[in-house]
Amino acid sequence: MTFNIAVIPGDGIGPEVTKQALLVLEKIGKVYGHSFNFIEALAGGCAYDLKGTPLPQETIDICKNSDSVILGAVGGPKWDNLPGNLRPEKGLLQIRKELGLYANIRPAVLFSPLKEACPLKPQLIEGGFDICVVRELTGGMYFGEKGRKESDMGEAAYDTELYSVKEVERIAKKAFEIARKRGSKVTNIDKMNVLESSRLWREVVNKTHEEYPDVTLNHLLVDNAAMQLIRDPKQFDVVVTTNMFGDILSDEASMLTGSIGMLPSASLGEGKFGLYEPIHGSAPDIAGQDKANPLATILSVAMMLRYSFDLEKEASSIEAAVQKVLTDGYRTGDIYNKGTKLVGTAEMGRLVVKN
Ligand code: NAI
Ligand code: MG
Question: Where Mg(2+) is bound, by residue (predicted)?
Fold first, then answer.
């Protein structure tokens, strides 16, 4: 099969880690007989420098005409003093919106060779864990009506948590679909004991579940869920939740894996199209030094193969190669500890390709 992929390397370490991910895809193409066409596009600070905007129309068009997008990272101190609408990060928010990407998928996987990087007690993580947070990305309190007004207590401000049945339905569907490709369990997280929006949320999740009888569903209140993530992370498979709860819980879950350099993500909308990126930023402190960990971006292309192209075998083979390289003791600086072998960005990529 042939796939057209928009490639947005971005700023800082973005181009370095993206390059390694593309080499991995090329190898997958050779081994499994697919062809990947890469179409490069500009976004972020580099786009501002060359085109005067962090997200040129040409980039949006390239993305819309592709089967999926891989993005490195954007931003850096060079552009920190630009006004909000010209900042590199704005390009990123805008691109997700332009492409209708309402589901943010963040797996938090503890690779067994990296056990020491997890802040939890060894007995809690025996055998590792593999959590996939499915966060609603374009609704809820971050997008609801907000403002300031006078109240009985003087000046006040408010934000509104608003969810429509349609919004909940589509994110719940995504979670159930993803669960089918994994352990087949979904935990819904809300605050239905207090919030009306959460009561609607839970009703719709339950109703949507009727179409997925093969997937197990349970519910947790968000405060309990925050505690359970630390107490017993292994109980979770797929987690579905609102924009705000997902923002907080996905950061909590990601820290359990130790390094930001290991964590991929996907933003999905209707259909198979998706935007894939590491969760880390442009790491200006190590940019251009061959120090960045490319595994988060490499694991992001594995997600692309799984979610956008239905190439499960190919995706798993990338994950297995990453596991093998770590088991063999190779580490970039962010995950290095005594007794392991320190390698640079390019060498880490080469080892994954080889495996
Ligand atoms: P950051 O994620 O870029 O870096 C935080 C720390 O983690 C740094 O010490 C960095 O060296 C390290 N680090 C990050 N990725 C790494 C990797 N792959 N390998 C090894 N070490 C890694 O976050 P920071 O410093 O807050 O932001 C830097 C710039 O990136 C800012 O301009 C920020 O706005 C932008 N940013 C962009 C994001 C994106 O494009 N999705 C997300 C987060 C931040
Ligand atoms: Mg956040």
Answer: 223, 247, 251
Alpha carbon 127 to chain centroid, angstroms:
23
CB 237 within 8 A of CB 186: yes
pLDDT of residue 97: 81
Residues 6+ apart with CB under 8 A from 321: 24, 352, 353, 355
Mutate-to-test residue for ligand 1 from 260, 332, 347, highest number of ligand atoms within 8 A of CB: 260
- Burial (0-12, 13-18, 19+ Cβ within 10 Å), 246: buried
Would you please indicate which residues are annotated as catalytic (active-site) residues?
142, 191, 223, 247, 251
233: containing domain: 119-255
Query: Distance from the CA of 213 to the center of ligand 2, in angstroms?
Result: 32
For residue 52, what is the domain's CATH number? 3.40.718.10
ipTM of the complex, rounded to two decimals:
0.98
237 within 8 A of 131, measured Cβ to Cβ: yes
Asked if 187 and 288 sit in the same domain, the reply is no
